[in-house]
């Protein structure tokens, strides 16, 4: 039971539709064609602009993939670099008495240098901010140290170096930060 009726409008009458579609005079026909041409030119220009934007976006994404594509692989190698440094720090070369230990330490040091040089060639730079001002963009504060004699916010210990790949942070440096400097005698309590 549907009471739907088709509304009666002039557009539903086939005779009136033909009249509305065809301009009566040649001048009206020319004006209508000029409007249609302008609309089509506008659509063409928009389509060309969209195509150019898509091409530029694809180029930018390709360049980013080339520049930063090694990021995940590099992240996996950061622990290798950390472990090489820990091995070297575990026994300073001056304390090694045995020539074999000295040779082993020299080999580990050479391996670390080569790994860091390979990092540098790929745009991966080590962040070792000892003594610098804390920057939350590149550092992660793990603890605050009191009575360091250094100004507040100064990095007093680097627990783990950070790394930057070109201009993107790959891993922040884990640091200890001075809570405040020594009391300044010129400042009243």
What does this structure look like?
- This protein has helices at 14-21, 26-68, 71-90, 99-121; strands at residues 124-127, 139-145, 155-160, 162-165, 168-171, 173-178.
- It is of the alpha+beta class and 189 residues long.
- Among the domains are: 21-66; 124-189, Roll (Nucleotide Exchange Factor Grpe, Chain A, domain 2), CATH 2.30.22.
- The strands form two sheets. It has a three-stranded antiparallel beta sheet with strand order 1-4-5. A three-stranded mixed beta sheet has the order 2-6-3, with no helix packed on it.
- Residues 15-19 and 183-189 have low confidence and may be disordered.
Task: Tell me about the largest β-sheet.
Answer: 3 strands, antiparallel
Percent of residues in helices? 40-55%
Number of strands: 6
Strand order of the largest sheet: 1-4-5
What is the ordering of alpha helices and beta strands?
HHHHEEEEEE
